[in-house]
Amino acid sequence: MLLRFSSNNKHAINSINITVGVKNERSEVNERVNPAQKPLAGELNRHAGQLAGELNHHAGQLTGELSHRAGQLAGKLNRRVVTFADEFGLSNLLRLPYLPYSCDIQPSGPYTSRFVSIKVILEVL
């Protein structure tokens, strides 16, 4: 899942990419399993699929919330940078290239999984 936030401000952070990767660890039915146990293995596979779907749903919700908050933070940061540059006559500094900033976030909460990772990338024009 990839979300992108964009701004038209020439001094703005131009994008925020948020990637959520969820691995689906699904148990597989072993061919050597006793035929009487295969229905149980199928039931476990079905529950594993349901749990993976629920985890994907909650990861999507977390991503949307993070995207919203990152957009608010980017707007606040842009206003402060432009105000600071204007006050001190540093508008030329805003035209210098900046390297993107990125970080990985491991969410915590009732739906936390070691298979959920959120990558945030901030790029400045």
Your description of this structure?
The protein is α+β, with helices and mostly antiparallel strands and 125 residues long. It has one domain. 41% of the residues lie in helices and 22% in strands. It contains 1 helix and 4 strands, in the order ββαββ. The protein has a 4-stranded antiparallel sheet, with helices on one face. The longest helix has 51 residues, at 38-88. The protein is rod-shaped, with a radius of gyration of 22 Å. The relative contact order is 0.23. The model is unreliable at 1-29 (pLDDT under 50).
What's the number of extended β-strand segments?
Answer: 4
* Nearest-integer average pLDDT: 64
Give the SSE string: EEHEE
Q: What oligomeric state do the depicted chains represent?
A: single chain
Q: Which of globular, elongated, flat, extended, rod-shaped describes the shape?
A: rod-shaped
